[in-house]
Amino acid sequence: MPEYNYLDEVWRRLGTWGRYQSFQIFLQLTSVLSESIHLMVIVFIGYRPPYQCAEVENITSRYEVLSNSSVTTRYGACHIDVLLNGTNHTIMELSPCPTGYTYGLQKDRTFVTEWDLVCEGAERAEVSQMLMMIGQMVGAAFLPQLSDKYGRKIVLVTSQIVLFSSGIGAALLPTFTCYAIMRFICGVTHQGMAMARAVMSVEILPEESRYMAEVLGCTVWALGLCLIAPVAYVMQDLSWRYLYLVLSLISIHSLLGFWTFDESVRWLLANGKITEAKRILRKAAKMNKVNEEEILEVVDHAGAIALKSKLLQGDNQTQSINGKELTGHSTDVLPKYTVWTLFTRRRIAIITLIMTYTWLVNSLTYYGLSLSSASLPLDRFLSFFLLSLAELPVALIEYFTFNRWGRKWLCIIFHAVAALSLIAGTVANYLSDKPGAEVALMIFFFIGKLSIAGSFSTIFLFTPELYPTNLRNVGIGFSSAAGRIGGMLAPFAGPLAEKVSWAPGAIFGVMCVSVALLLPLLPEPTGHELPTTVEELEQWYKQHSGIKRRKPLNINNTAELNDVKH
Q1: Which CATH architecture has domain 6-48+120-265+336-544?
Q2: How many CB atoms lie within 10 A of CB 58?
């Protein structure tokens, strides 16, 4: 694969963090804020407080007449026991609760309490969360293909608007069925946003700065999670609908998306839309106060080289290419790939299988640990806030190590640390009766959460860098869709821990070890330009996969441009 990509020279000449790029990255970061809030608000609006059967009037006197003896009643979570006075002998068990339930919170504080999603109805609450994960899987499987085919912008902005609308709808619609449908739609569009945004972020920056998109995204994600707890705490005496409505309104900026976002220039050029790409580059040059002719010169020379190459090869499609708004200066129009391409080429299939498994393990471990936060001996608002705060150091670690150690090795280290801490936490849990075991368990729990959050953040940058332009969204989408399976399995970690306390930590730890052993088989994208075609990717994989990291060529930018010109 060539070490040089003329588009990276374009972004460098524009100024990597010029006004244009900074504004577009800022818009993408607002999407990250919406993603984190809509996904994790369920912790508070779906909270299940302590509950029991509501009292029944005159129940004691009625059964005293029937039994011809004095009785007492015992109110349980899902049934009422009528006992002979002074004994444990049950005369009658009333199930389900005849007059509903009483909760440790007011009736409208969560959707669980509002719709009595406990006891026999408890599975409906789990179904609503399952539908969210299924929606994410559907969105990750199909929307990235639309993004590669029709453009990043239309998928990102449409998903933003629909996510905002589904949040408002879930907060206002009166029935649980409507709420569940809205959460499914929320899951679909959540992944459409996440996948398109991740790809657009890496495509707007040159190689040496791509890591900053994920560093900033990781920071905003953690800050979004930290925001949920204090807002929920302030609004804890109001209906859950108000909380969801207020947090959903943070996404109202999405209504302006079609006017504020620009399409990815890489995607436009890769698909032969030269006129539109040049229009955006002129706009960027004007915002950054750069000579636009110098920017367009790079594109024109690269297009001329591509055209000359096709003429020398006797390509009989030259006329049709010249007729597609290219006016004699063109880059190649890339073929349209599909999800099947991920498995029809051996090296791409290896990348896909490894990254699919990596996403599944990350999702299972991350959500498994997050859903276990209720087991911490802290207030639910404080425990969620502290667990969210634990993710902030990830951005700092990535800032100093992404380009120094590389994406692949940082991901391996994160998984190795997560595995060690989870296995150590399992041992501490097994020895919970020993002095200091609970403190050790808390420490290992937080280290494990930080590490798996770090690996999750890293693969959001690592995955799209492993695929060519017109397969990039499909690749990250397929891997993310598999990750949703891990998210659907995560809720079972709690019941498993009740039966075998050491099992979840041991399973998570072993799976993280297996990922750390598989990742060295992949190429290291740090220091290399994004691949454009499948052929470039396969050549790059052949030369750069394995344990040893190859150093990229360090060519002076001016010399590189001269190479392009000549």
Answers
A1: Up-down Bundle (1.20)
A2: 8
